[in-house]
Write a structure and sequence with these properties.
Number of domains: 3
Helix content: 10-25%
Strand order of the largest sheet: 2-3-5-4-6-7-10-11-12-13
Shape: globular
Largest sheet: 10 strands, mixed
Radius of gyration: 25 Å
Number of helices: 11
CATH class of the largest domain: Alpha Beta
Structural class: alpha+beta
Distance between the termini: 49 Å
């Protein structure tokens, strides 16, 4: 991290390590608060981050960098553990429940009523916290004046970790395993006293198998519509700043929010993976905390910072780079658009022909594609975090096992900004099939850089709210919208469309190997016109943060959190298996072992989750063992068989 560490702020800070916020039903949720020392005499606005990840031990690293920074600039920065997590009372039963939203409304009202508060509240967060910032904004609590949502979604079925194009994502199992393990973590006895053990045992014994619930909803039904603000964008009436990165799994939300919201709004898309922009990789990182302060000062303090005089969208136009699963930094430049959709982007259509991708229609001999099931080895993670080899690598091997169409070498640079859309006429020899389309930048040396991709379970060809079986041999016209992208493809490079019926291990295979026959097709590229007077945006400030949390590595996988005197240990593994020609051999296994100790108090939790399949069902098995000072206090085995979506 190359951020400048700030230790002196305009206002002195005090911290409330732990306090309880009462909710309407008598439950209390735990909060950690940073605020100016003199806020009692000079009340300040509050900024809420609301998560299930344990304020004490789960997000301590990023909290230390961010929340004191806001407090030092005149805000009460409030980090709340959702009901059933951390030191909060109750049970967490699922993601994004109505109860979670109700509780947030109560928390916001409590914050607005505190003597150190001026009655105005903002809400921000990344991932889960970005989701519920949007969801709570749609509830319109009176004190909530503005939000910043980072790496989030407005559509829980279409763009979240569970499904892509109606196909289960492997990432969903990783997330299910993580959440299952995370909810097993005990409250801290130093904060909740002797009742920690009763709270912990209640959680352990009532913990649900989250993945079972998610797999029971394999199409876009009312379960997924709940919490999807795209169902009614007009419900959001406060200003929204939507932030993300091209390397993240959630970027598509930002153009949709800019297009459909009617409130004051801004969008920021950098090169980043799934992290806040002041610490995210790939770089360059920016002064995101300063940018957030400009937003908060405008909407919570009525200071004209100029933030709303700027173009609606700032985006990183990524230059071509040699493909690799890790990038410290992605080259490119910042561009701006006054609105979204923008008049500066036009559709360029390329047709699939026997001569490759052509700007005019031409003959295409019908082509079959029946991919080896392991096409996708270079796909990377659905949602990269950027700090390991989790990004898409060189696509050459996957391309060689796919159906590909290339342009001739380009005469000039083509800048793609937005979502490519491919339309295909096809037939299939089975009643079920998946189709994956990748858009690649092919370099003169043969390297293939993935720009974007899309996935579709062909049973959802008429929409995600129903699943209709294919009729073998029948001709269909299908449409796949690929992920939004911001990429420049240089002259002398080629643009490639690669089509496959598999993309493992990112997406779960269809129950049978199918052959898809491509009869005709074209792809629409959103091409940005580089204007002669293309304005050069004012540069973002360099990243700044507050001082990092003091921790010491005791041994690999174990750290001591000095502030709390806690030792925290984690060991985990994420394993996948699939035979080349057997879609029913797919297996994903997630294991985690966690320890926490202070003095003579020591807890260990071991969890495992496994997902496999038959032709007609998904098979889940999970286990947990929990130990208090090496004495087993809970052992559970949870198994379930969930019918696959019948088409």
């Amino acid at each position: 991290m190359n951020s400048r560490i700030v230790t002196t702020f305009p206002r002195e800070i005090r911290e409330i390590e732990h306090t309880l916020i009462p909710l309407r039903d008598g439950t209390k949720v735990a909060a950690r608060i940073w605020l100016p020392q003199d806020a009692g005499q000079h009340p300040v606005p509050a900024i809420l981050e609301y998560l299930p990840y344990r304020k004490q031990t789960g997000t301590f690293e990023r909290d230390a960098l961010m929340h004191p920074y806001f407090a030092g600039h005149g805000y009460a920065a409030v980090r709340v553990d959702i009901r059933g997590s951390g030191e909060s009372d109750g049970l967490l039963t699922d993601e994004y429940t109505r109860q979670e939203q109700d509780d947030a409304v109560d928390v916001i009202a409590w914050l607005a009523a505190q003597p150190w508060s001026n009655g105005r509240v903002g809400m921000m967060g990344i991932s889960w916290g970005g989701f519920n910032a949007l969801q709570v904004a749609a509830r319109r609590p009176p004190a909530l004046q503005a939000i910043i949502t980072v790496c989030s979604t407005d559509d829980r079925y279409r763009d979240d970790v569970h499904y892509m194009g109606g196909v289960p994502l492997r990432a969903g199992m990783g997330w299910a395993g993580f959440l299952f393990a995370s909810m097993c973590f005990p409250p801290d006895p130093a904060l909740v006293g002797e009742r920690w053990r009763a709270m912990w045992l209640e959680r352990l014994n009532r913990l649900p198998l989250f993945q079972k619930r998610w797999l029971r909803h394999q199409w876009r039904d009312d379960y997924w519509k709940h919490g999807s603000v795209c169902e009614d964008y007009s419900a959001i009436t406060c200003p929204v700043y939507a932030v993300g990165g091209w390397t993240d799994g959630y970027t598509n939300t930002i153009p949709r929010l800019l297009s459909h919201l009617t409130v004051p709004r801004k969008g920021l898309i950098g090169p980043w993976a799934h992290a806040y922009p002041h610490v995210a990789l790939p770089g360059p990182q920016i002064g995101f905390l300063q940018e957030a302060l400009r937003w908060w000062d405008h909407w919570l303090k009525d200071i004209d910072t100029g933030v709303m005089h700027e173009p609606m969208l700032h985006a990183w136009m990524t230059d071509s780079v040699s493909p690799a699963p890790f990038h410290q930094e992605l080259p490119g430049r910042w561009i701006t658009e006054p609105s979204w959709p923008t008049p500066n982007v036009a559709v360029h259509r390329l047709h699939l022909t026997d001569e490759g991708l052509q700007p005019t229609p031409a003959s295409l001999t019908a082509r079959d594609v029946c991919s080896p099931l392991t096409v996708g080895k270079q796909g990377g993670a659905w949602c990269p975090f950027g700090r390991s080899d989790d990004q898409a690598g060189d696509q050459q091997d996957d391309d060689a096992r796919s159906l590909v169409f290339d342009t001739a070498p380009l005469d000039t640079t083509v800048e793609i900004l937005g979502a490519p859309i491919i339309t295909l006429d096809l037939s299939v020899d089975r009643t079920q099939a998946n189709l994956i389309v990748r858009l690649c930048d092919v370099r003169p040396d043969g390297g293939s850089l993935r720009i974007s991709y899309g996935v579709l379970n062909l049973a959802h060809r008429d929409g995600y709210e129903n699943a209709t079986p294919l009729q073998p041999g029948r001709r269909y016209r299908i449409r796949i919208q690929l992920n939004d992208a911001g990429s420049a493809v240089p002259a002398d490079h080629r643009i490639r469309v690669a089509i496959s019926t598999a993309y493992w291990p990112m997406v779960w295979p269809a129950p049978e190997k199918a052959t898809v026959t491509i009869i005709d097709g074209a792809i629409e590229l959103p091409v940005r016109t580089t204007l002669a007077a293309d304005p050069k945006p004012a540069p973002f400030l360099p990243p700044e943060t507050a001082a990092p949390e003091c921790s010491t590595e005791i041994r690999p996988g174990v750290i001591r959190l000095e502030r709390l005197g806690l030792e925290l240990g984690t060991e985990d593994s994420f394993e996948t298996h699939l035979d080349e020609d057997d879609p029913l051999s797919a297996v994903v296994t997630v294991r985690q072992s966690q320890t926490v100790s202070r003095g003579i108090w020591r807890v260990r939790i071991d969890t495992q989750m496994r997902m496999s399949c038959t032709h007609d069902a998904f098979l889940l098995h999970a286990s947990l063992q929990a130990y208090d000072n090496d004495v087993e206090v809970c052992r559970r085995e949870l198994s379930s068989e969930i019918q696959r979506c019948r088409t």
